[in-house]
Amino acid sequence: MKKQITLVILGCMIVILAGCANHRISPRIGDEALQETWMQQVNTYPANWVKNVDPWFLTGEAAVPEKNTTILEIKSPSIVASNFNSIAVSGNFQVQIVGGQDANSVFIYGPTEMVKLVTVEVFNNRLQIRQNEPEKDKIRKVIVRVGVRQLNLLENKGNSLILGRGITSHELVVTANGSGSIYLEGDMNLTRLENTGTGTITVLGAKTQSLKMTVIGSGSANVSGQVGIENLLHKGDGAVNIIGADSDHVCITAAGAGTTTIFGYINLKEVMASDTSRVYVYWVYSSKINVIARGKAIVGLAGTAANMSIELSNQSCFQGEHMRSCNIYIKTKDNAHADVAADLKIFASSENKSSIYYFGSPEILSRLNAQQSAILPLGPYLIPRCAENPCTFIPPSFCGPVKEKVTPDPLF
Predict the structure, then answer these.
(1) All domains of the chain, ordered by start, with CATH?
(2) For residues 323 and 383, what is the distance between their CA atoms, to the nearest angstrom?
């Protein structure tokens, strides 16, 4: 009889415990929360951007001209005597720009009846190339070749394809607001890039200390070289990629459904991501980083930081398994998730079915709040980190030269 009573009690306890377990927040170990593959999505080869571009951009060799091709050299005194350093294009033709020339020049190639549809003039040192009858798409067979010494401003206001080889510039601004694309190669101090159209702007050979990038809409932008990106605003569905970033102060704002990737060596200060945007950056070397993500945005960082502040809401995600910090203050709510790694201290607050997984000793955690959520230790670092110790903030040589020694603030 006693044995039967004992079995009944044990059975009741199992049922009660099982019922309690059904109301706990189940850790998401094993799903994509721990499978950080975002670094594979960061392009590190600029050649991938120009695979399908016109061969002239890669070789400088013009295609064999078609029959009945007219070659018109623009000998207008206003152009011959001009030192134009700005070019504005509006039309459906192709423009080929050759930089570093001793004198400026303009040639138009194409069928005679189409060449007549192109107007070229100079106003206030700006070369304006436009199409007289915009509705005619066949004018795409026209090529306008421009020789220029220095290029300071390039605007694509229509559907034209603009290619530039050997471009030199002390201060270059590139803008586009149509469906046309721009590809530039050379030695350029790119200071501003704006794309509000549907095409792509690609710049190979940028050398700048302070670049401001704005990409709004479905267009894309690619920049490689020694890129001193300072401010990046990406609101749209396209892609923004930077290879060779070398910046002392970077702020990133992303919204929409696009992807932003940065590969290089930057002092990241702030990331603000919303909607379904993606922001992936490595390597990071910073004294303090502020990350705010909302919606279904994902932010992935790799590198080191002395101090990090992370605030996640909705279904956003922070992937920082490869981002080693000294101190982290993190707050998640509303199904948000974060992977973090710290050496000294983690101040964690998790609410409303959100979760925080952290790499490091369990002793470093200060649990500020954990309501209907999961804050779980995942043990020590499983892979080598960029810096041996972010608390002393002295990275090894492969992270780049030491720019400053930072003493972390344990309380932010």
Answers:
(1) 67-154 (2.160.20.120), 289-412 (2.160.20.120)
(2) 11
